[in-house]
Design goal:
Blueprint (H helix, E strand, L loop, with lengths): L5 H26 L6 H11 L5 H21 L3 H19 L12 H16 L6 H4 L9 H43 L1
Helix pairs in contact: 1-2, 1-3, 1-5, 2-3, 3-4, 4-5, 4-7
Protein name: RpiR family transcriptional regulator
Family: Belongs to the DoxX family.
Pfam families: DoxX (PF07681)
Amino acid sequence: MTFCNRRDVGLLLLRLGTGGVLAAHGAQKLFGWFGGHGLEGTGQFMESVGYKPGKASATAAGLAEAGGGTLLALGLATPAAGAAAAGGMAGAAAVHAPNGFFNMEGGYEYAATLGLAATGLAITGPGRLSLDHALGHVFDRGWMVPTALAATGVLTAVVVGTRNRRVRRREEGEQAALFDEQELLLG
């Protein structure tokens, strides 16, 4: 039996690419690296798109991306890492969804792709070229996959649902204010 096969090499490449991109995006949020805005600037952005409190939301998103991405790249705690990254990307996709699918229009294509890749890795596992394999899969048990995905799914649904309600109320308030202003102008 060989040490690794095509599947293991493919999973390694997918983990390194997906995990590396996620880790870099998380580092932008947490530390301001790679042209990012750090917790302060990202927190302000998060507030502006309905995630409150902004700084706590930026920290959670940054940790999901940086932590989940790093663990995915290493192939360590793969179910939890993939689920955390997927949850973070679902939150990002919610912000971009009103702009349609394609990224060039500000859509959710990029976040969805990263989230689906992270979910796929959580389900498939890291392969033999991973720390999970080297450690005997102590952080990558079969029961951990549905548990991590379900827990992340519930938490993400609550956070994104709360954000979406907040944004809807804000938009309704802005429309009402615009209507009131028009009423005043028309007398």
